[in-house]
Amino acid sequence: MTDHRDHEAHGHGHGHGHFGGSRGWFARVAHAVAAHSPLSAHSHDSADKTDAALETSSRGMRVLAVSFAVLMVTAAVQAVIVLASGSVALLGDTLHNVADALTAVPLAIAFSLGRRAATRRFTYGYGRAEDLAGIVIVLLIAASAALAGYEAVTRLLNPQDLRAVAWVAGAAVVGFAGNEWVARYRIKVGREIGSAALVADGLHARTDGFTSLAVLLGAGGAALGFPLADPIVGLLITFAICFVLRDAAREIYHRLMDAVDPALVDQAERILGGVAGVHRVGSVRLRWIGHALHAEVEILVDHDMSVVDAHAVAVEAEHRLIHELPRLRAATVHTDPHGPAGADHHASLSTHRSR
C-alpha cells in the first residue's frame, strides 16, 4: 500500500499544500526541485497554481477596494440630500450604504489572512477566515432587515411629510444604482474565485439597493398625496431582504459544514477513473478552504505493482485532478492494492475506519 503523502514527506512534494507566502519563495523551491527531479514540469504547474491562488486573493482585494469607494461616494451624495430634505427614510438608506461599505473590512482582513503561510498550528492555512467573515456579513444583512422593518413600522405609526421630494427620488436612484453595480461586481468575482463570503457580501449590497428603491417608491407616493406609501413599501422590502438573508445564510452554512456541489465529486471520480493504472476509485472527499478546493482521495492499483509504480500512478492522479477540477489547489492521493481475491488489506483498521 502506497500513500501519496509519503511522496510529499520525502522532499518530492509539488507545493500543493502551501498556499501562503510569496511568489519568490515558491519559485526558489520549485527551481530547486526541478534541478534534480523528473517531475519538474509538474512542479512548475504547481507554481502556476500557487500564483493563481495569490491572484484570486488579489482580485478579491481589488473588488473590496473598488466597491468600498463606490459605496462611500454614493453615501456622500445621499447625505447631502438628507441635509436638504430632512428625509428619515433616506437617512436610513444612507446609513445602510455606509454599513455595506464597512463590510469590506472583515472581508479584507480575511483575504489578507488567507494569504499567510500554513503553520504547525494552522496546518491548512488561514483560508477559513473567509467563512468567519461570511458570518459577520450574514449578521449585517440580518441587522439591515431588522432596521428596515423597524423604520417601516415606525413610519406607519407616525407618518411624516417629505421636503424636496424630487431630490430624495434622485438620491434613491443613485443609491440603487451604486448598490446594484457593487452587488453584480462582488457576486460575479466571488463566484469566479469561489469565495462564498464575497458572494454573500454582494447579496448584502443588493439588499441595500432594494432599500433605496423603497425610498424612491415612498417619495413617489408622497408626491401623489399618499404618505403611507413609504412605510408600506418598506415592509415589502423587508420581506425581500429576508429572502436574500436566507440565501446568504445557506451558502455560508454549506461552507462551514464542508458541503460541495455533488457534481464536483462526480467529476473527480471520472478524472481518477481515467488515469492509467487505476482499477477502481475509492472514497473522494472535497472541501473548501477559503476560495480553494482541497481533495483527499483513494484509488486502487494492482496489488503486485511496485511501490515506485504505484507512486507514479498516484502522482499522475494528483496531476490530473489539479489540472482538470476547477479551483482545486491541493490533493492527497492514497493508493490501496487491488486484489488478490478475498484479501482484506485494512482488517486491523476495520473498527476504526468510517466511509
What does this structure look like?
Keywords: Membrane, Transmembrane, Transmembrane helix, Transport. Belongs to the cation diffusion facilitator (CDF) transporter (TC 2.A.4) family. Residues 262-338 form the Cation efflux protein cytoplasmic domain. The chain is α+β, with helices and mostly antiparallel strands and 355 residues long. It has helices spanning 4-12, 23-34, 40-85, 88-102, 104-114, 129-157, 165-193, 196-223, 229-256, 262-273, 307-324; strands at residues 2-3, 280-289, 292-302, 328-338. It has two domains: 2-16 and 260-349, Cation efflux protein, cytoplasmic domain (Alpha-Beta Plaits), CATH 3.30.70; 50-256, Up-down Bundle (Alpha-lytic protease prodomain-like), CATH 1.20.1510. The chain is built from eleven helices and four strands, in the order βααααααααααββαβ. The protein has a four-stranded mixed sheet. α6 packs parallel to α8 (196-223) and α8 (196-223) runs antiparallel to α9. The model is unreliable at 1-51 (pLDDT under 50).
